[in-house]
What does this fold into?
Amino acid sequence: MRSVLGIVLTLSLALTLPARAAEPRARDLGIPFDFGSPGPQNAITDVPGVEVGHLTLIEGDSVRTGVTAILPRGKAKPLDQCFAGFFSLNGNGEMTGIPWLDERGRLEGPILLTNTNSVGVVRDAVIEYGRERLGGSEVWSLPVVAETWDGELNDIYGQHVKKQHAFAALDSAQSGALAEGGVGGGTGMIAFGFKGGIGTASRRLAAEDGGYTVGVLVQANFGRRHQLRIAGLPIGLELAAKAPAKKETGSIIGIVATDAPLLPHQLKALARRTALGMARTGGVGGDSSGDLFLAFSTANPRVGDTGGPVSLIMLPNELLDPLYEATVGASEEAIVNALVAGRPMKGFRGREVEALPTAKVLGLLARHGRLTNKGSRSAY
It folds into this structure.
C-alpha cells in the first residue's frame, strides 16, 4: 500500500505541472515545421477558454502513470457544451462517451487522458466530480475518458490511479504554457522507441482566413523507431536500435480545439486531419495501435441551450482548408514536442527507456540543411 505521504507529495507536485519549465521545445531548437505560425504558447491553451491540468504519479520503482484533464471552456464554465466530432484511425483503444457524442454532436464536459487500465476509475471519478463539486445529480454521466498503454514502465495492473488523482488533474487545470513529455497521462508513455507522452502545439490562421486558432494536444505512445520522421527526414533509420520492437504495441490520443465556428460533421473532418499529422512523423496506425482523435469548437456558446431555437454561426465547408492545414501542422509538431520533452525513465521491473538524442537529431537536420537559425541553442 502506498503511504499517505507519497500521495500528498504527488498531489502537491501535480498543482505545479501546467506551467512549462524554461526548456527549449522543438521549434526553439531550430526544428522546422510547416503550415503556419503558432499562437503565443504554441499550445492547445492558445484557444481562448481551454484549460489543461496534469496529475503525475511517480512512486518507488514501479509507478509511472497519471491523468491529464482538458476543460474545453475552463473551470469557469465546466458545463457549457461544445460541438464536437470523433475519428478512429485504428480502434485498438478506448475513448468513452463516443456513441453519445456522435449521436448528439456535442461534448458535454471535460476530456481526461490516462492509462488503459485506469479508464474505469477515471470515468467514475469525473461523474463523482460533477456531483460533488458542481452540485448536479446528472452531469457528465457519459464522460469522455481516453487511454494509451503504459505497462512497459508502469505497474499498470496495480491500479494506482485513484479518484483523487482525477480530481487533482481537473482542479489544477489552467490556461497558459503547459508541461509536456512524461507528465499527467503521458508519464509512462513511449513513442518511436523513445520516451514519449504529452505534447501540444497550435496554429493561428491569417486574418484573411478568419484569424482563428487551432490547438492540438496528444498523448503519444505509438510508432517503431525506424519509422520516425522529423522535418521530413527519416531520422529513425539513423537512430534504429540493434534489436527493434517486432511490432507496434502503442497508441495515440489526439485532441483538437478551435475557436472557429464549426458544426459536428466539420469537426469530425478536422479530427481526421490529426491522423495526417501523425503520418508526417512516421506513424502508420499499426494493427495493435489505438489511434483515436476528437475535435471540438469553443464557438457557438449556446449549443447546450434547451429552451427553444438556438442561433448558430458556421463556416461553409469551402473555407475549411486553412483549418485542415493548421490541424495537420499542429498535430505533427505536438508529437515532436512530446519526444523533445521526454527524459530517460526507469520503471516497472527495471525497464528503461531512453530519451530522443536531441543533439544527434539536430546534427542530422543541420547536415541536410533542415535546421533553422535557432538551432544553435543548447540541446541539453
